[in-house]
Amino acid sequence: MANATNSCPSELPAFCQQRHWSIYWIFIACSLVMIGGRVMTMQNWQTPGESVFHSANDRSRWATVRALGDHNTYEIDEVAQPGQPIRWDTIDMVRHIGADGYMHSYSSKPTLYPTMVAGIYKAVKAVTGMEITEHSLWVPRIILLITNVLPWGIFLFFLAKLIDRVPVRDWSRYFVLAVAGFGTYLSTFSVTLNNHLPAAISVMIASYFLCRILWKQRSDWLCFFLCGMFASFTAANELPALSFLAIVGAFCLVRSPLMTFAGFLPGFALVVAAFFGTNFLAHGQWKPPYLHRGDGDMLLSIEGDHEASFNDGKLPEALRSEIATAAPKLNFALPKIVKGDWPSTSDEVQRWVVRDRDSDAQYAVRHQSGTDQFAVHKWSNWYEFPGSYWLASRAESKSEVDRGQPDQLLYAFHCLFGHHGVFSLTPVWILAFAGMVVLLWNERMQLRLFALMTIVLTVVVISFYVLYRPTMDRNYGGVTSALRWLLWLAPLWLVCMLPVVEWLGKTRNGRFVCIALLVVSGLSAAYSLDNPWTHPWLYEIWSWTGLPR
């Protein structure tokens, strides 16, 4: 029997381990059945054809998967054409000049993960003979079973292995595993192709090996390699997770410089090479698409009063001769000049786009009010193209949430306690945030460094999205059931809730509080289980009340 301090008496370790894992596997199996069953029955009933694609976000990745799997190209011009029986079009798209010198459309998502999924699609097609265009329900479902459901079981397995090594009661371990399986929005997003689930799974695996390293239970090459690889893969899927990668790398370096260079760095290098390599294959350069949201380097400038000419669609002769000298192969004899259509942070800057009528070459011209300087920049805004959802001229046609929240204080409130709130939608995280602080003073669980890392990462990520993003990006992740940008932190929060759950679990009332928080969180996650790309239930209530959003 378990005593009050340790759930496993030292004299019966084998029996206790067997008992633990018999319960763990029940939780894991139940969660997998729930997720797997949902994947195999899900369908978007709002479209005329049969598909599991629910939003522009997942269609963007599916378009790349189809283009690579069927045509061996990252170009999605033909794939994303509107008017098809199945919706493949997406607003998460960029356009730039391809290797053939002409404009092409591409997914705006980082290329590594869709490339991996495309490899799975090719394998599925080779084994079953089914193509995604002809079997738009079953092929994506099979792929999601491989990319989401199977890794979801791996996520729960590594979480169980980690919490099984922490000295707490059995009830605390089972509760945390139940929260992971049924009480977070990770389960909601496990039925769609997205970057948040693989990022969270990577965090879990990297955290397991990191704790083994910090606890000095393993210090071999493979442990450091896997820690580096999965921490890097997290950053490849979630840009703010670069902070996670940096902290994990620093911990490993302090623990063993030799193994860090021999194991961690090769794992890191493997992911970095794959990330930038696939990006170069797709776009012909190393910089990812989401960094192309502004004009490029200034190429030249001219002086004079040319504003009227540009507004009339005429290219000043001084600029024509400068361009002819700088780029003699381009023909700007009859250019097409349009007013810049990208949201500006300053009313003092006027902007035009100059396009060659005989090719897809173009430049951006910027004029600072009050000066006679007209600067010609290399065109580098891949989101600025005719029909783009993100153009300034389409601001009024965007969904309200995509227009961004200009009030940072109100945005912070809704991210934490409001209609997209971490605590209001998933109140079980209250236990995790309290546990982070408790662990800083808890020596017995040996999770001080883990808690410190989690606190730093939580503050950094929330600050990044609330304080340092432009207004148009303060949109709660778009039309989505939760603040999805924080989902990759869930594995860290799950481990950190252990000390508070342990304390509350000593009494019946404390256990009731834990279960109540789990039930509310589970119901919130289940509300959008059919389609994670919908507003949270609390957002809908907020809209009915007319309160500020």
Tell me the layout of helices and strands:
Blueprint lengths: L12 H29 L14 H16 L21 E5 L5 E5 L4 H17 L9 H26 L6 H13 L3 H4 L6 H19 L6 H17 L4 H14 L1 H27 L14 E6 L3 H5 L5 H10 L9 E4 L9 E7 L6 E7 L4 E6 L29 H9 L5 H4 L3 H11 L8 H20 L22 H7 L1 H7 L3 H20 L9 H9 L4
Antiparallel strand pairs: 1-2, 3-7, 4-5, 5-6, 6-7
Helix pairs in contact: 1-4, 1-5, 2-3, 3-4, 4-5, 4-7, 5-17, 5-18, 5-19, 7-8, 7-9, 8-9, 8-10, 9-10, 15-16, 15-17, 15-18
Q: What does this protein look like?
A:
This protein has 549 residues and is an alpha+beta fold. The protein has a domain at 298-381. The protein has 20 helices and seven strands. It has helices at 13-41, 56-71, 112-128, 138-163, 170-182, 186-189, 196-214, 221-237, 242-255, 257-283, 307-311, 317-326, 408-416, 422-425, 429-439, 448-467, 490-496, 498-504, 508-527, 537-545; strands at 93-97, 103-107, 298-303, 336-339, 349-355, 362-368, 373-378. The strands form two sheets. It has a five-stranded antiparallel sheet with strand order 3-7-6-5-4. Strands 1-2 form a two-stranded antiparallel sheet. Strand 6 and strand 7 (373-378) form a beta hairpin. The longest helix has 29 residues, at 13-41. Residues 1-12 have low confidence and may be disordered.
Concise summary:
This protein has 549 residues and is α+β, with helices and mostly antiparallel strands. It has 20 helices and seven strands.
> Strand order within the widest sheet?
3-7-6-5-4
Q: Give the end-to-end Cα distance, rounded to a whole number of Å.
A: 53 Å
What Rg do the Cα atoms give?
A: 26 Å
Shape designation: globular
Secondary structural class: alpha+beta
